[in-house]
Write a structure and sequence with these properties.
Layout (H helix, E strand, L loop, with lengths): L1 H21 L6 H19 L10 H23 L1 H4 L1 H6 L4 H29 L7 H28 L3 H15 L10 H8 L2 H13 L7 H25 L3 H4 L1
Length: 251
Amino acid sequence: MKINADTTLLWEITKSNFKLQNESSALGIIWYLLGPLLLFGIMLFVFSHRLGSDVDKYPLYLLMGIITWNFFSTGAGRCMTTITGNASLIKSIPIRIEILIIAAIFHALITHSIEIFLFLALLLLSGIIPILIPLYLIVLVISFIFTIGVGFALSATFVIFRDVQQIWSVITRAWWFATPIFYVPTTTGLGSKLSLFNPLYYSIHLSRELLIYNRIPPLYLFVIFFGMSLISLLLGYYIFRKLQPNFVALI
């Protein structure tokens, strides 16, 4: 019964967050899609004849990188202010705060799913039949787990130390350029070594291989990505539980 109640509450909060985001806007969800599309258009214009000249199906390669990154950055960013933004709710009724964090990620997942459907439509228009979608769904689940772990850590630390928001902004900018979103990762040197420790590299690379190129990547890439995501979840939730006793007094 407790699980059913939590699941219902998770769904209701996710649905409420989605409605609140779009109820005061005439275009609603379209505004969310315009951001990645505008960024895609600018980067395609700048890099298609430079960094992307030797990349097969570069427009799709670039777009997949942008929307995959966007899911992570949007989901983690929403988690950061979830606890403080729901202070009155947390103080007024007994609620598992974890549900609020997971609901924020589900909110990002819904909008990301719309992007993926549009991306699949572009694949079909390009003559590509994405036959490996089931394997891609596994990658999406692993990405979801990784984002939840980061979200737990960010939401908890933001309650204690509000400068985390500015610090995270700097980290994500550096992380963006360290991730092969608009360029091909090097196979040698420092860049290749950094990619091995970058979870977003695995998320984006696996997604591209499965959807755009219809290739099944080596199993060890899935295993490494899952291991990183599991560590993220365990570490993030540990930080969350460690700091949770301070939440009510500080929000």
